[in-house]
Amino acid sequence: MIILNKQQILDKFDADTITLLLKEGFIAFSQQQVQMPPVQHLLFEQANGDCCIKSGYLQGDSQFVVKVSGGFYDNPAQGLASNQGLMMAFSAQTGEPQALLLDEGWLTALRTALAGRIAAELCAPKHISAMGIIGTGMQARLHLIYLKSVISCRQLWVWGRSETALEEYRQYAEDEGFEVNTTQNATELARHCQLIVTTTPSREPILHAADIQPGTHITAVGADGAGKHELSPELVTKADKILVDSWAQCTEFGEISQASQQGLLAAHTLTEMGSVLAQGISFRDNDQQITLADLTGLGIQDVQIVKGILA
Amino acid sequence: MIILNKQQILDKFDADTITLLLKEGFIAFSQQQVQMPPVQHLLFEQANGDCCIKSGYLQGDSQFVVKVSGGFYDNPAQGLASNQGLMMAFSAQTGEPQALLLDEGWLTALRTALAGRIAAELCAPKHISAMGIIGTGMQARLHLIYLKSVISCRQLWVWGRSETALEEYRQYAEDEGFEVNTTQNATELARHCQLIVTTTPSREPILHAADIQPGTHITAVGADGAGKHELSPELVTKADKILVDSWAQCTEFGEISQASQQGLLAAHTLTEMGSVLAQGISFRDNDQQITLADLTGLGIQDVQIVKGILA
């Protein structure tokens, strides 16, 4: 069995190759060519942590992948990363373990940020006077790096709860070439931004319907388990078009799940990213629409990023 | 992270210590003190294989466990074991991986056989003129070893499809001190035996209602995924009392699931092993009852056996 540590994994990571694999994966998923059992969730209230376990197999592949991914939000106070976890590849011919990728959560973070880039390609309006990032953590940083390659705008608003974290993020984003405004008022951020990414594990809505202007796209990546929500159900309902990575997962525990379970999405068509990618078209029809992409994270993304690392 | 190979794991394995941990685990499970998300199943038709992923956390423990367990039934022809897999322990405080147990499926096999021993303690009739084992594989062998310590009878009937496998099993069981009869006729086996264990991944019933005499106990451990069945639904219905490891799992995909889903178990009370263990009583009321134990395998068993190995 191959065992790779974080540095060995990052040395093998190529964003563009893996983005292509991810797109193929989303398409295969929406074409029912992927076995992807329902996600397992564990909750560790005493440690302010949670864990999800995803597995997937793309029909015809020589391997399948299992991923254990934790978020332990008190870790930073101990000098540890919030994101923890590993991925494993097994032979689909014999079941033998083939590779253990001790990525410390990086592959999940990277494939999430790359899915966000794909969503931005499909949904971003033509005119963006500023981008907005909700959150200051690892996902907020990775999104910025990968959005840079598809969005030319370098005006940035960042929302966070902690002034220290906001200042650290400002430094980071300035080093990446952005002009940065920080705020603890999400309404102010939304007033300036036409492309917003929400990246927090919040359980209370941060953005509300009244905050959002026509012609805005929001990608929500924080909700990956029951009870996590960054957008109010009314904001979700206000969206003209909603892109989901998985109809089943998003309606069960994604950002849109509350609105869906309250029957507020009757007038909406939920379109899977794989269906849009298969057609090779933009998801957005005009520059006035409000679009929303709800990304819960799919086992097939883990399958594809592991394939890209081990290739 | 600690990495243990199969031999290192087996060196640390103590059947009696782990049996106590398993009993505690079954009780905690039935008392809702265990987080155990629904099992993930993957199917590899092209390879005659399947895989299940289980996870579990006993409230208050310092670690949680994830297990990947495969059955690839063409492996023996390539000189590989059918059972594959590994178990992992993670910190419930930080999410960090703590231990990787490369057990090649042995811990699953061992905790299954030990659960079978617990079921036999709870259900076996007083009078056993012969024990019957359906199957000749690893589980058939492990059950024999652990049943020896709770059942004094040394008369054995073994059913298998292959004469070669039956002869190999005969040799094995004779070395363990049994007088062995082999057969390819399960009805003949059932006529002689009051304690029967079924251990195959069969998708067609091997034992039928007419085969079973009053005063018989059957432990079924083969059905751990949709479509696997060793007993006919009519035989399941004929049982006077049914013990299950998990009400939810057994009715979904266990040996009793067909009968349950066909509405044939209306008159039956399904009792969880943990409830019986908590009361410290025998499950069997008299020597004429037909009892059935349906063991699908629980994530809490993996939690407890890993705890026992790492202690």
Automatic annotation (TrEMBL), chains A, B:
Keyword tags: Lyase
GO cellular component, one term: cytoplasm
Enzyme class, UniProt record, top EC level: lyase
Name of this chain's protein: Ornithine cyclodeaminase
Disulfide bond is among the record's keywords: no
A Pfam family assignment: OCD_Mu_crystall
Natural source organism: Yersinia pekkanenii
Source taxon at top rank: Bacteria
SUPFAM superfamilies: NAD(P)-binding Rossmann-fold domains
Gene Ontology MF terms in the entry: ornithine cyclodeaminase activity
EC nos: 4.3.1.12
PANTHER family: KETIMINE REDUCTASE MU-CRYSTALLIN (PTHR13812)
